[in-house]
Amino acid sequence: MRVDFDFTMAIGSFLVAIVVGLTGMGGGALMTPMLVTFFGVPPLAAVSSDLVAAAVMKPVGSLVHLRRGTVHLRMVGWLCAGSVPAAFCGVLIARALGDGEDVQKVIQKALGVALLIAATGLAVRGYLAMRDNAERRTAATGRRTAEPGEPAATAPPAAVPVRPLPTVVIGVIGGLVVGMTSVGSGSLIIVALLAVYPALKANQLVGTDLVQAVPLVMSAAIGHLIFGDFQLSVTVALLAGSIPGVYIGSRISSRAPGGLIRRALAFVLLASALKMFDVSTTATVWVLVGVLVAAPVFWMFLRTRHGLPALPWARGAATPAETGRPPADL
């Protein structure tokens, strides 16, 4: 079989993968809109090809968290009980809608919703990092004692009791969204887990989410291989760029200002979502300007609520306990 290789697409996936390596998020949320907006790939084909490429890439990060012991395996099991069959059903729903232009529009709108969720997920991840740094700060200065029944800061993930029903529901909703749009395995689910399991630390939430995403994405990928609009040439270009991109991004992640990158990424995702909804350029500019003005003020308010200086670069903003990994996430 002859495969047409698109070098431009490979370069685009390389740049996106660097961001993924730096932040741990944004794979489907950036890759799929890039394929639709800049390369004219039909939405369903973009979703199918991106999911197959993600199925190859996802296990790498999950193995790191498994070795570090930051994965709640029982929670992963309940999440997969809902997400794996739901992801396959999401593919069937997308396929049952048909192949016409109207169907591509539906997928495009669903992708827009998923991008908004992904932007929210990035904001939540930044909040988690800030909250954890605030807790380490108070622990280092000895100004805070644990409340009765509160888990210790070093408690393993398994110490947090699992709530099966809401966990399965999270998996079902996340699986459906991923199956239809390829977005959500690293954003929608982590936001829901934060709401249900506030006692989990940030790295435990990320590790648990990454591991459960492996069978979830594989289920969706298999569904799209069978019923979707998979294009081998698109997937090959994505893998050719994303494999070295993720490696390079991961190598420099410890030195890069991760918090700043996540904020910029959330801004790009919001702009991409508005593009998927066919919002006019004028309205998009006004929305983005409003976010640029309001978001920093709200973030400073959250910092002060957690006992941190409003500005991260203010004197005394970071303690030695906070300078491990990474202070830019403040």
Automatic annotation (TrEMBL):
The alphabetized UniProt keywords are: Cell membrane, Membrane, Transmembrane, Transmembrane helix
Q: How does it sit in the membrane?
A: Multi-pass membrane protein
Q: Where is the composition biased (Low complexity)?
A: 139-158
Matches recorded under InterPro entries: TM_pro_TauE-like (IPR002781), TSUP/Inactive_protease-like (IPR051598)
Where, per UniProt, does this protein localize? Answer: Cell membrane; Membrane
Kindly indicate whether the keyword Nucleotidyltransferase belongs to this entry.
no
Region Disordered, annotated ranges = 138-158
| Superkingdom in the source lineage | Bacteria
Q: What is this protein called in UniProt?
A: Probable membrane transporter protein
Q: Which organism is it from?
A: Sphaerisporangium rhizosphaerae
